Amino acid sequence: MTAEQHFQVALRLGDDAMILGQRLAEWCGHGPVLEEDIAMSNIALDLLGQARGYYSRAGALEGLGRDEDQLAFFRTDQEYRNHLLVERPNGHFGDTMVRQFLFDAFSLERTQFLANQTVDEDMAAVAAKAVKEVRYHFSHSSQWMLRLGDGTEESHRKVQQSLDDLWPYAGEFFVADDIDEAASLAGLLPDLSHVAHAWHARVSEVLIQATLQKPTTTWSQRGGKHGIHSEHLGFLLAEMQVLPRTYPDAAW
Amino acid sequence: MSTSAKEWPLWEIFVRSRQGLGHKHVGSLHAADAEMAITNARDVYTRRQEGVSIWVVPASAITASSPDDKEPLFDPANDKVYRHPTFYKLPDEVNHM
Amino acid sequence: MSPVEMNLEARFEAYVADEKKIEPKDWMPDAYRKTLIRQISQHAHSEIVGMLPEGNWITRAPSLKRKSILLAKVQDEAGHGLYLYSACETLGVSRDELLDDLHSGKAKYSSIFNYPTLNWADMGAIGWLVDGAAIMNQVPLCKCSYGPYARAMVRVCKEESFHQRQGFQIMLTMAQGTADQRAMAQDALNRWWWPSLMMFGPSDAESPHSAQSMKWNIKRFSNDELRQKFVDMTVPQAELLGLTIPDPDLRWNEERGHHDFGPIDWTEFQEVVQGNGPCNKERLAARRSAHERGAWVREAAAAYAEKQAQRKTSSTEPHAA
Questions:
Q1: Is residue A251 part of a domain?
Q2: Is the CB of C295 inside 8 Å of chain B's CB atoms?
Q3: DSSP-derived secondary structure for A145-191
Q4: What is the pLDDT of residue C321?
Q5: CATH number where B27 lies
């Protein structure tokens, strides 16, 4: 594995957490009930913390002196390496929970490997903290899948639609490219085919309980890991990056 | 405009702040079920590492003593000073007992 | 009033005068209960409406550290709203009823949150001035006569001091930053100063509920006393920041031992309270929309909980022999 590939791995981890955290933070003040508003903010805060940890590692690997903020605020959408799923707009609460659930189930496998098995000790340190958080996130989003799936007729219909809409974006998790393969060979990241197996088992178990139909489509949208994003990311970044880019000399 | 659906029930939250201490009432919140009450309590009442264990109790399940019974319930204990260790004056040599 | 009630009322007054706490099930005069419901719910509403002007900048916070701090702060405000709604519910009113009153415009909330947040320094000014003024109002409430309110306020005040400190730190960073940042800091102070002074409410002579609330130990200091204390505390802080408070009449009065300050525009205050502030409509619309858009979610969770409870009962029922 090259140093550049190692850097890219850290960046992908950071970008997933960054973009999903930014999305969830949009909910703050607008949740369906006060208690859930607080819960979503907590998850967003965990993700921001994870992003900062992975970015610091990425900056160190790159060796050009870029810190977490330079990586977050001074890269274009094409330089972002997150999966397409996490940049999907919030939609309604069901959309947000399905996005979270599909991601959490994936993140849990990946983070567990990083916490226990990866050869990168610095990333393992970030993951050791993150793994507890992600376990909680997955339990939170799974509970909501059950409540919405097995709640009222309306909620069942809505969340099934969310699942059908977002499912094609989850496939990208498991499409290994040369970076994934090199990282897996080097013991940095888990083998994605193993992750896929565990993910399907985890997700299916919850969906069955939630009385939801697992979508049958095998087609997956892809491109995020290589910087080819949806139209949504540009707007998300324009908003997120506006201050540092308008006042590049300022410290905050 | 008005809320037609039934509100989620109210839960009373008790948090054990450290191992070895008892659970203490910290407040209440709304949740649809016990599981949600636990996770909500975690997010609402332990954001600053205030706890190591949580109890949730449906507010409707609590029976409280009536304030009108304050006197018959609690005043009789007033004159039973002999229940308190300080009631017993001992020689200095054994006063740490 | 019957002799029994008179007796109860006299006992209540003596109890409160003795600095003792009233608890939910204790007898209390109807007017005391109503005053508390009004005040605590207004306070709770202020916390959750207050999330919106700051929430406006979470997605644009200029560093990841600031983003985390701001998100944590706004989240705390949701928590404070929750503690306060809970305290209010002990008085026999449901959260849904309270929210309905907010959404219909019947209930009031602190009018400061009807002003817009226009630049990042507003996050500093809100923490420094608005939270500073709020703390000054709130610390005495930790000792108020109603137990659940006092206990909620103890929690709130503990968390608020982080809010004010992070706000001042933003102001300090901006005031010592680039020319653009200094201009933003001054602009924020210009816009938030007067509304912050208004937060203490009308002057004592005009304040409708003050006297009774003081007697009941719900209120401890008069609006004017607290406002003066706030001005005296804030002037040297502004000096330290190198920013100018937008009041030409502001000066130290040796004789009084306090700062004199210019007249407050109470017409503006009344207008904002009546719904004519720059953001009243947006704030209420945002709260209403969140509540309405969340209805199906709340219903789903309630339905699921009911199903689960039924499943539990039917699975524990003894099987027919």
A1: no
A2: yes
A3: HHHHHTS-HHHHHHHHHHHHHHHHHHGGGG---HHHHHHHHTTSS--
A4: 46
A5: 3.10.20.520
